[in-house]
Amino acid sequence: MSRQRISVPFTDEHTVTTLKAGDQVAISGTIYTARDAAHKRMVEQLEKGEELPFEIKDQVIYYVGPTPAKPGKVIGSAGPTTSSRMDRYAPALLDLGLKGMIGKGYRNQSVIDSLKKNKAVYFGAVGGSAALISRSIKSVEMIAYEDLGTEAVRKLEVEDFPAIVIDDCEGNDWYRQAIKNYKQ
Question: Distance from first CA to last CA of the chain, Å, rounded?
Answer without folding.
Answer: 18
